[in-house]
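Recall that a protein's primary structure is simply its ordered list of amino acids. Everything else, from secondary elements to tertiary packing, is in principle encoded there. The following example makes that idea concrete.
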Amino acid sequence: MKPQSILSLLLALLAGSAAAQEEPRPRPPATADELTVPEVSLTPAQVGHILKELEKVEAEIGQGRGGILSAALTKFRSAMGSESDAVSLYLECYKLENFDRKDLKQTDFMEWRERNEARFKDENFSKGLLLQLEYLVLTIQAQNVKEQKDMGTLVSALQAFMAKAITEVQATMKHTASGAVEQKDADTKGGGQGRKGGGNGQGGGGGPALGGASPLAATLRQSVKGTEFGKAYLLDDHLTRREWEYSPLNIGGIYSSVIFPYYLSEKPTELSTQWDARINAEMALHKASLSETEFALLYKEAQPRLLWEKNNHLLTSNINALNALADMLKIIQGNPNHADAVSWLTQFKAIMQKVAPAEAPPPVEKPIGSQ
């Protein structure tokens, strides 16, 4: 039954119920935060019937959302076969979102495409599109997973994806003999990838601050919801899972939202190893995009901070708690000039007060001469 039919049913039931009741007493005006509910009572049979109809509508809504995600999943998977397929789908989506839906002319699209032709031939641009599509597929697959135990396959896929993405970003950058960092083959492929990557702009991302040195990294810092693929298929309102990170290169977000909760629930003894993997991944991204001097300065600040987060997480999760405490003390001792040193010291003192054994009461002295 369609929503209109349920509305008609409700109106009929309410009208019949109201006719059998006395004139209701006036109610004070409802405030903006109050829900206006008619003063009627329905029989259990009427309530049951309405709830059954609502279940039908809920199923239809679920099928509609599932159909949208399923169609997008099929299309994205097919475009992952080659870089040319990814570029073709990008152009199709860009045309739909920026020209067709705005009722612009076909000639306008053709002129835009011609102006950007060199960009579409850039190898890094097409690699960015492939990585966006791969992460979108994982994102769609994650939407309906209910239990942590069922996240194992996706977690493994995420780990493989991050390794691939980091390798691709590293391949776009190089360090000179002096230690400076620059893009490989910059501006030698007819315009390059530019700052906009596979979508419109760099926004919506997160992850390590890469300073804009790598256009591929800028592409992957963008939320997949805001890519041309996501916008064309109207995915924003359908990608609603909270325990997920929507920016492919937000390493910290992926670990915090997905990987750490899975290991804490299913494989707690491996949580420490996963923390090490996160730290190594973030440092690798920074190293690829910063000069040697910049990276040395960042490492001095970021590495101890991440190690503190790791051991604090292990401690609060009661995983190798004694080792975690020992490592936290080493961090404080080894980094007295760190910006967070005072905060760490305060936290550690508070922890010590909580774990310290209660002092034994002083012995009661017996009166002189007592037995």
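The chain is about 60% helix and 0% strand. Strands lie at 173-175, 181-183.
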